Amino acid sequence: MEDKNTQEQKLYIPLNVTNRIDYFPGFGKKELMQAVIGLIVEIPAGILIYIIMHQTLPMLITFFAGAFFRVTMTTKNQNNISVVDLISFSINYYKEQRIYPYRPKDEY
């Protein structure tokens, strides 16, 4: 007979539940602000392309490709991680210390 104190209690943790409002899955207010910042950077680039080439097609391609990549890079997946987050994780990982200057001592 098992005692109630020795029984394992299982904890249910729901997945894919966010506490924020998304415009579409994985793209909320924070990602929209990141996309707007990217747009602010992209507008001078498009104007510069128009000044150099004197054609609207390369400028429009720049705007549409930029919009596609901004949304794609900032949209979070089911694990709540975006491509921008993965890049920042990698940068932080490579900045960390890897050489630990200590000398092991003999335990015995």
**In this structure, how is the largest beta sheet organized?**
2 strands, antiparallel
Structural class: mainly alpha
- Spell the H/E element sequence: EEHHH
Total helices: the number is 3
Poorly predicted runs of 5 or more residues = none
Biggest sheet strand line-up = 1-2
The fraction of residues in strands falls at under 5%
Structure description:
It is a single chain. The chain has helices at residues 29-53, 56-74, 83-95; strands at 22-24, 27-28. With 108 residues, it is mainly alpha-helical. A two-stranded antiparallel sheet has the order 1-2. The protein is flat and about 75 Å long. The protein starts with 21 loop residues before the first strand and ends in a 13-residue tail after the last helix. The model has no long low-confidence stretch (mean pLDDT 85).
Structure in a nutshell:
With 108 residues, the chain is mainly α. The chain contains three helices and two strands.
What are the defining features of this structure?
108 residues; mainly alpha; single chain; two-stranded antiparallel ribbon; 53% helix; flat
